[in-house]
Specification:
This is TerD domain-containing protein. By secondary structure, this protein is α+β, with helices and mostly antiparallel strands. It has 23 helices and 22 strands. Helix content is 37%, strand content 16%.
Amino acid sequence: MAHSLESLVIRHTHRLPTPRGSAGEGATAARQFDAALTSVGFKLSAELLERLSGLSEAAVVHTAGRTLRTVSEMVGDHVRHNAYFIDFPANVPDTEEFWMRCVTKALGDDTSRENVLTQLAHGVLDLLSLPTYGRYQHTYEEMLAAQDELIASAGDRVTVLHLGRDLDDELTDLYLALAGSTTPLGEDHLRDLRTLAERCAPGPQPESIPVRENRAVVNEARLAAGADLLLDTVTDVLRLACALSGGDVTLQEPTRFRALSRPARRALLAGLDAVVAANPAKLADVHAHREPFKRLGERLHPHEYPRWPHAADVFAVARGEKEARSFDSRLEKLLDEYDVLGAVRLLTSAPGKLFRALDLLLRIAADQDERDAVLAAAVRVAPEVSGRVVLSVREHFQNRERQTAEPRIFVNRRGRGWVTPDDRRPVPAADRDRLIAALDTELRRRLPTPDRLLLGPDVLDVALPLSGRATAAGLGVLPRGSVSAVDGEHLRFFVYWKETEDRTDYDLSALLLHADYSTDSWLSYTSLKAVGGEHSGDVTEAPEGASEFIDLSLDRVRSTFIVPQVNIYAGEGFEEVEESFFGFMLRDGEQKGRPFEPRTVRMKSELRGAGRVALPLVFRREDDGRWRAKWLHLYLRGISSANRVEENQVSVSKVVRALVEREHLTVRYLVDLMSGDTTAVELWDGGPVPDEPVTYVGLERPEGLHPDSRVVTLENLRDLIPG
């Protein structure tokens, strides 16, 4: 358990909790540990190396074994990445030549000859019927022997592991950070929060837990620990019930409520009773989730507890036996009547709902006086709206031009993306600009104005993480909409998957698009070679795990966009397989090396989304000839089987265009707001850092920062979002 908790800290913070052990002469073992880390793209900070050097050799070796397992998994090196073509990317055959080679071998095989001849006679051939197609024809060790050694390069990735505090302190800090996050967490982080809450719920708590899903997870742990529950709406109780049943605390997916223990039932009913007793108007919130409340009532048996009559009222409203006029129904009536001023008066009591309705109100307002009233109300309630919502609305109106031909893109909580034509009436430009200026003023008021702001390279174009669900779990993963430089001559994508029980075939492909987003060409199992690239070959089953690769020489690619994608051709979905992840590597010149070299991995992200086609990111050639990546984290519905790049190229192109053309709020925007007249702003160039405390914002933490510095890196970028 201690190792898994230590691993959790390393993954989230890139800090190694203070290593323990007897004192000794561990310098040699520590240097060997550092060298082993280098092979997977990591290294020890000077402070951590010094700490380990003062421990016994046995303590260092013990720490090294645990840490190497963790970082290998972070980068995807914990599994064996075999390639179908043994010396990939060299000697990849043309597609037709390869297929004919497989047919020839099948005809020479007594067990398959008759079946293949019959198929050929009918003019249709199933590739899976060929014994050598889609299954590795060599072992992993034979593949390694056929590959040249990797030549180390100064451009290889180096991720520094820093010295942390005691494990208990690190766990408490991480718990407080995740529980008190101002933005929703992704599924993996929410799962980690549950692990931390089980340990930390009785101890120190964040000042507030603004995200409701986080509160549900914390309440589950507090209930088990016998602590008071944090409840202020009836929906908080419903989310807690979902957590206790192992269901979806976001309430997006239906939960099958389990039979709950008597103490749990009493706690839920007492919580509902207290919330409604304090504010009977909260009964109106039941309407948004009537069906789940009805099913929960069947499990809680409120009639057995007459001392909590207000709890019984909740289920009476859900069943339609008691009236509680909902806020949304009152609002809908006013909007149906185009009563903008009435809607504004009502929405003033619900600032978040007012902000989400601003676009609609400005569009349906009859005249300038009504639009002025909408804007005045927005300015008045802005201080009561969460920073995440203010930023989301600011980004929305930034993309709201007077007239636009670009389609609208929607992405749900599970990463499913789709586009629709934008047929909304424009918002008057003057009103839009006034609102944007007011939102900027409100955000500037909330943000700190540090004396000295130190910025790391490549952080300014990172999109603000307004939701943890806009970022996949993994290493070096940036939020959706971020733009990052691509420095290297060879770009290599990889996908790994391991099926749970059914034969599962994932196909790694790359769609190459012209500047107008029309198709140029593609790389896939049906097109093993294209201008500038090679595919490693189709693997059609993964009982022991399988990998596919695409290698591209960027100076040979003539397209404007490169869109890697993972298509589910057959079998289990991304959320059903035992494991699946995608990533990319960058290599210089003639580095050679195996198909998968961990120190060249720039990004590795988990594939866990609702859809049959995954679109992790897109690469674009800029006017200066350099390549940059824009992060997508999207999934398309696709079809139940046989998804192929040829069939989905139109839908992929539309989604890519919509997201590439959208302007996202970035770290640069917040830095500009924070940079007051008294703030010294400087870019860190990789050299020595200042001796005094600074606020540092960058992708990775530099060594040697003053201990009183505030540090925001990719791992805690959400801390930039004001409350």
